[in-house]
Amino acid sequence: MRNPSLEEEMVLHQRLLEHDPLAYFDVFPMYMERLAKKLEGQGYDVDVARDAALEAVLAYRKKPEGYDPRKVHPFTYLMGVARHKAVDRWRSVQAQAQREKKQGDVELLRRTPNDPVDRMEKCVRVKQLMDLLENGEILSAQDQAIFRLFLMGEDSTEEVAKVLRLPPMSKEERQLEVKRLKDRLMKLLKRRLGREDSDDDS
């Protein structure tokens, strides 16, 4: 499909300014594909490129007076809008991926993998999480020791009770105390990851 001439683009622009109903449809085939292909050529994936192109065309269709013919070519103007949309969309996708990764870290704490590869992966994530928490100085030395047990899948009541140095109590009381501690540490971790996520978005 050939690219439209400047004259054709300016005719369409005038029709948009005059609120021609058909112009609202004609603007899509004139710009959508070209904008998306251009963005893909700049390294954006297909979904981001097409979404950004669509948003740019819709914004132009809604407010055609925002384009000043005396300054730039119509396509150049729309490409600038689309590029800004693509950057915003890419940042949103990256932020979502980061949130999902951090949520995955929390879920990882609840599983003890049996597969050697999974176990190795978990060991790496354990170190990363411990570095995060220790650098933030939000855990006491005792909490850190207990947290390592949880991260490595060792959460038996007796092992945790040893680290806690709990006084003599019934088995049920020990289980309740250990559960209370585990819940507290998990909430602490989620809050910490939430703050890190907010810092990433700002």
Question: Mind summarizing the main beta sheet?
Answer: none
The best one-word shape is rod-shaped
Average pLDDT figure: 76
Number of helices: 8
Range of helix content: over 70%
Q: What is the C-alpha radius of gyration, as a whole number of Å?
A: 28 Å
The total number of structural domains is 2
Task: Please give a quick description of this structure.
With 202 residues, the chain is an all-alpha fold. The chain is built from eight helices and no strands.
Could you please describe the fold and organization of this structure?
This protein has helices spanning 6-17, 23-41, 46-62, 74-108, 116-135, 141-151, 157-164, 171-201. The protein has two domains: 6-95, RNA polymerase sigma factor, region 2, helix turn helix motif (Rna Polymerase Sigma Factor, Chain: A, Orthogonal Bundle), CATH 1.10.1740; 109-201, no CATH class. The longest helix has 35 residues, at 74-108. It has eight helices and no strands. It is mainly alpha-helical and 202 residues long.
Key descriptive features of the protein:
single chain, 202 residues, mainly alpha, Rna Polymerase Sigma Factor, Chain: A, 2 domains, 76% helix, rod-shaped
List the helices and strands and how they pair.
Elements: H1 6-17, H2 23-41, H3 46-62, H4 74-108, H5 116-135, H6 141-151, H7 157-164, H8 171-201
